[in-house]
Design brief:
11 helices; 5-stranded mixed sheet
Length: 428
């Protein structure tokens, strides 16, 4: 039961004093997140619902390409990180246990998954593999900012592919490109898949998934059929810089700010060689396993959606990741005919399987409408005196605050579903 009279949704009229990004301001104001310390954020119930809806979409798409879900520890021995040369990364949290054994808090899981595969995979018959998990990552971020966009702790989906050779890696990489494209489309984000540098991950090549918005810390260069990280564009042989403008094929590239929400890497044998992850081929030859690594941040997708679709009144979620599909507002005191009618609509919507939050608080219409717009569910349904008089429920589409055709006032789930089904095609 999701009634605002007993639901933890601490909305605020003012944003945090240090908030600059729209997503930081609105996610705090809408009662989705609260800060515990620098770069450390708690997801409150409504915010966690959004996060987990994104997780559900990602899980479905990775499962669809043959991914097998597992879970690896955040706390790890330091030795595998020393073998790969990544122990000295500044952003890696390092600690020792009571016996003095060196440990790390993982910022990603290449070392851990390769360690396991090196012990399990023996033959070409054991390949290919796609393994993934959703797990907390820890990063000693020097400058946490912008709410959940740049934090010291976050959840990431990271998947890893294991193949016999480069051709197999390229096939698994292409499968992830398709899965990531579908994830972006299903979450409703505007995005670009751009060429990027391999950075600290190493390997043969990489792409980033970028969600354009003003709060983004990254910059992408865009042209006709071309999209790349600005650093990659500047290093490209077919791009030149003239008077501060990047030129490709005689045309200036457009530079746009964006949030990186995912990245994918062709690692090759970058981790399998130092961690001795090898297999025997058909002839008995021992060869290194070819790997790929694929990360995506649910929290960043959530924040990017807020950035892209918010207006001056609050958040406006894409339906696929909204905390609730419907925000039901009751106008009328408990015990009145209006409230009884709203209770009937609430029960019917739940019975019909509609995700709904019911504002049954003892508050005025203005406060209820303001909170509904701040929270940003795709549809607002209002049941009050007018609904009783006209026999219909007022419907407003959150995106653009557009009025939609009224739905017949009823406590019959089938009737309400029929009315909503006619409205959903109009909802962005």
């Amino acid at each position: 039961m999701t009634r605002l009279s007993d639901y933890l949704l601490p909305t605020e009229k003012q944003p945090p004093a240090d908030a600059e990004a729209t997503s930081h301001k609105l996610m705090v104001r809408a009662g989705l997140i609260r800060q515990l310390g620098a770069g450390m954020w708690t997801w409150l119930p409504a915010g966690w619902r959004v996060h987990e809806r994104v997780v559900g979409i990602i899980r479905e798409e990775i499962d669809a390409i043959g991914g097998q879900e597992m879970l690896m520890p955040v706390l790890q021995p330091a030795e595998p990180w020393r073998k790969t040369g990544r122990y000295d990364i500044d952003a890696l949290f390092k600690l020792t246990d009571r016996k003095g054994s060196p440990l790390v808090l993982a910022m990603t899981h290449e070392e851990a998954v390769t360690f396991h595969v090196s012990q399990i995979v023996r033959s070409y018959r054991d390949l290919p593999l796609i393994l993934y998990h959703f797990q907390v990552k820890e990063r000693d971020e020097p400058r946490p900012r912008a709410g959940v966009l740049r934090t010291r702790e976050f959840i990431m989906k990271d998947s890893y592919t294991f193949d016999r050779d480069q051709a197999g890696l390229e096939e698994r990489y292409a499968m992830h490109v398709g899965a990531y494209d579908r994830i972006m489309e299903r979450t409703g984000l505007r995005y670009y898949r751009v060429e990027s540098d391999v950075g600290m991950m190493g390997g043969l090549g990489a792409h980033e998934y970028m969600a354009p918005c003003a709060a983004g810390e990254d910059e992408i260069a865009l042209g006709d059929g071309y999209a790349a990280n600005v650093e990659v564009a500047r290093a490209s042989a077919d791009v030149r810089e003239q008077d501060g403008v990047l030129i490709r094929d005689g045309e200036p590239l457009v530079i746009e700010s964006a949030i990186e929400v995912g990245n994918i890497f062709m690692l090759g044998t970058r981790y399998s060689e130092p961690l001795d992850a090898r297999y025997l081929d058909e002839r008995g030859n021992e060869l290194p396993i070819w790997m790929g690594s694929y990360g995506i941040g649910p929290a960043r997708i959530v924040a990017a959606a807020v950035e892209q679709f918010a207006d001056e009144h609050g958040i406006s979620w894409p339906r696929a990741i909204a905390p609730f599909e419907v925000h039901l507002v009751a106008i009328g005191a408990p015990g009145t005919r209006e409230r009884d009618a709203a209770e009937g609509v609430y029960r019917a919507l739940r019975e019909a399987g509609v995700s709904v939050v019911f504002d049954d608080r003892d508050a005025g219409p203005g406060e209820k409408f303001a909170d509904a717009e701040l929270l940003g569910s795709p549809l607002r349904l209002t049941v009050g005196r007018r609904a009783l008089e006209e026999g219909s429920i007022e419907v407003q589409i959150r995106r653009g605050r557009a009025e939609a055709p009224a739905v017949l006032l009823s406590d019959d789930p089938a009737v309400l579903l029929e009315g909503l089904d006619a409205t959903w095609p109009s909802v962005p």
